[in-house]
Design a protein that fits this description.
Elements (H helix, E strand, L loop, with lengths): L1 H15 L13 H37 L1 E2 L7 E2 L3 H7 L2 H32 L5 H11 L6 H12 L4 H8 L11 H29 L4 H9 L3 H29 L3 H6 L11 H11 L3 H32 L1
Antiparallel strand pairs: 1-2
Helix pairs in contact: 2-13, 3-13, 4-8, 4-10, 8-10, 10-13, 12-13
Length: 320
Amino acid sequence: MRTATATNSLRDLWADVELPAGRPPKPAGAAALLTRRLAPYLLLAPAGVLLLAISVYPIYYSLRVSLESRTSAQAAQFVGLDNYQRLLSDPAFWNAVRVTVIFTVVAVTMELLLGLALALVVSPLDGRLARAMRVVLILPMVIAPLIIGITWRIIYQSTGPISYIASQLGFGDVDILGSGSTALPALIFIDVWEWTPFMFLILLAGLQSLPMEPYEAARVDGASRVRTFLTITLPMLRPVLLVALLLRTIDAFAVFDQVFAVTGGGPGAETQVLGLYTYDLAFKYTQIGYAAAVAFAMLLMLLLVSVALMQGLRRARRWL
C-alpha cells in the first residue's frame, strides 16, 4: 500500500517537472488541439467580417441593382439582363469606352516610358543629388487629384496663363478645354504629370534590386550600353514592368476625379470616360439600375485586362 502511494506521488511530481530540451512534450488533449487549429481562423474572423461588410456585400447588392429597372422616382422592378442588352446599342456607352481606352493606353504608355527613363538616369546617382531628385519627382503624386484637377483647369481655361502667354506671342486666345481635339490630350498630360513619379519609384526599386554579376560579365565582354540594356536590364526588369503596368492600368481605366474637375466630360462628350458616365447616369439622370450595369461592364473589362497582364507576369517569371 505504501509502495503504491509512493509511486503515485513520484508520478505526480514527475508530471510537474519541466522536461529538458529535446524531450517530446506530453500529448495535448483533443480540445487543446482543436483550439490550436481554430485559433488562426478566430483571429482572422473580425477582418473577414469587415471585408464582407465593405466589399463582398456591396458587390452583391450592386449586381442585384443592375438586374433591376430602378430610378429615384419609381420602385425597383426586376428586368433581368435588359440593362446589359441596352449597353450593346448605347452609343454613349461605346463613346465612353473609346475615350477611356484612348486615355488609358496613351497615358500609361507615356508614364511607363518616362518613368523608365527617369529611373535609368537616377539609379546610378548617389548622395544628396539622388535624394533631392527623388523628392522633387514624387511631389505631383502626393497632391490630391481633385486639387490637381482644379489647378489645371485654371491653367487651361481661356483666361488662364497659357492663353495669356499665347496671346502675348501673337497666337490669340487659346481655349484648350473648349475643343475636342485638345481637351483629351490636356487630360492625358495631367495624368502623365501626376503619375509618372509612381512608375519612376517602382522601376527605380526594380533597377536597384537587379544583380550586378550579369553587368560585370557584359562589361568584360565589351558590350555597349544599349546592348546591355536590351539583353540584360530589360529582360530582368520585365516582371517589374508588368506589375507597374497592371497597377497603373487599373487606376487609369477607372479615372474620374480629374475629368470631373477639369472638363466634366466636355466639350460635348469628347472627354466622358466610363467612370464619369456611370456617375452621370446614377446621380444626374437617376438611372441607378442602368448605371450599375455600366459599372459591372467596366469591372469585367478591368478583369480581362488584369488577367492578361497576370498571365504575362507568370510567363515572365517562368522565362527568368
